Each structure stands twice: as C-alpha cells, then as structure tokens.
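Subject: sequence -> structure tokens, single chain

Hey, anyone have a minute? Need the predicted structure for the following. Not urgent.
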Amino acid sequence: MPGKVKAYELQSKSKNDLTKQLNELKGELLNLRVQKIAGGAPSKLTKIRLQRVLTVMNQKARQNLREYYKNKKYLPLDLRPKKTRAIRRRLTKHEASLKTVKQRKKDIHFPIRKYAVKA
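Reply:
Had a minute. Here:
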C-alpha cells in the first residue's frame, strides 16, 4: 500500500475494510522481516501504517463502547474519568448534602431565631 495513510481517512472506513488492511500490512511486515534477514534495507513505514490502523480500530471500539454504556448505571473502569484516587473516593455532592434524621428533626423543631431591630 503506497503513500501515507491518514488517520481521518481510516476513520471513515468500515471495520471489515480496516481488518482487511491490517492483514495486508501484517503480510507486508512479514515480507520485510524476511528481506531484513536476507540482507535488505529495513523499512519502518509498514510498522507505522500498521500502528495507525490499529490505533483507529481501538478508537472506534472505545467509541462504540461509550455509545453502548451511555445511559447505563455503571461504566467499565477504563471508560470512567481518571481524576485522582482521592477525588474518586470523595463523597458525591448528593451524599455530602444529606442530613441525618436527628439533624432534620433538630432543624424543624428549633429553627434559627430571627430578630428585628428597631432603628
């Protein structure tokens, strides 16, 4: 496959086309390995093309997974935001705003007193 393979061109291809192209590139890489052993000049271009195709395939797979899990209750760990360990373990806004039954009763029965001051 001569010339550069652009990532945006690969993203428009279907999964079958990408798989076929991947197999071709693997075959080409195999031939290059044989040539290298025989004493030919090594070429990195095929490796780069191969990696680009694999990258696009993985991006598409992750995008499909994101679509699948969009409205589900739980996300797979690798699709969740990374952040930091402390932030991930922190209480959610809802959990932090909850009050105990005792605190709610106290607020109802003993509201904050409001005073009006005469001027």
